[in-house]
Amino acid sequence: LTSIESQSIALDIASSGISLRTKSSGTGSADVKASVTYKGDSVKMGFDPKYLIEGLAAMQADDVTCEFKDGNTGAIFHESEKETSFYLVMPMEVD
Fold first, then answer.
1. Which of 6, 45, 88, 90 places its Cα 20 to 30 Å from the Cα of 76?
2. Per residue in 27-60, is it b (16+ CB within 10 Å) or e — as a string?
3. How do the pLDDT tens digits run along the chain, 95 residues long?
4. Could you tell me which residues are beta bridge partners of residue 75?
5. Contact of 21 with 34, CB cutoff 8 Å
6. DSSP assignments along 64-94, one per residue
7. What is the model's pTM?
């Protein structure tokens, strides 16, 4: 649901779950919620969905781990052992 004008997705992560949001004047908006295993303070992060899809598409496992310090630093996605392989995605500002 992203467009050229709005090539971003916002992630709101909390112990209650994750919310993925996007909005564009041409295509409308979307808000998808999913359950996650997460311990820590709530955090908001923004990403270019192209980069998220690219990294996640290369993973074979159903469960993927995302490690991050805060909403302003890169997030590392990996399956099983991080030392084997991982995918780093840099965040971007979103509304």
1. 6
2. eeeeeeeeeeeeeeeebbbbbbeeebeebeeebe
3. 566 666 889 999 999 999 999 887 777 888 999 999 999 999 999 999 889 889 999 898 888 999 999 999 999 999 988 888 899 999 998 86
4. 89
5. no
6. -EEE-SSTTS-EEEESS-TTT--EEE-----
7. 0.81
